Amino acid sequence: MAILDIVLEGDPRLRHKAHRIRTVDDSIRRLAADMHETMLDAPGVGLAAPQVGIPLRLFVVHVPEDYVEDGSPATTLALVNPEIVKAQGRVLGYEGCLSIPGWTGEVPRSDRITVKAIGLNNRALKIKYEGWVARILQHEIDHLDGVLFLDRVEDRTTIQEVPDSEEVEGPVEALSAD
Description:
The protein contains three helices and nine strands, in the order H-E-E-E-E-E-E-E-H-H-E-E. The protein is an alpha+beta fold.
């Protein structure tokens, strides 16, 4: 496994729609393992292939148990060609990004989602997520479509610079129950 370079905001590779992966093979599994190691080293909770300069529809997520505040389960996964097939509710929450270090902003997201994807075992998956894990998955799927979290911020006054040593915990507020 290897630590990959993370592409930073301003790099045009972050703004392109990533390509679908035809088959999950050893090269994709190796890429996912390298991305997972890179994400943990950064440290972060999610990393999409475009963030390491690779235009493929793949992301990894690792949410340790002690990092979850809303009761979401600890989660480690890699998803290929993920697609949100159902979204419900709307909540505001602060997000940051490994490709935009030192900045955070309040982003509206669906509170509950159903995702269809392919696992690293090449099998189709359909999984329901809610809360913070749902937010992370939506953030990573945005990367696959060339969208950054700053594009989703509705109230630009919530964008703030955060010193490296400071951890941001923003309010999460339900907007509607759909």
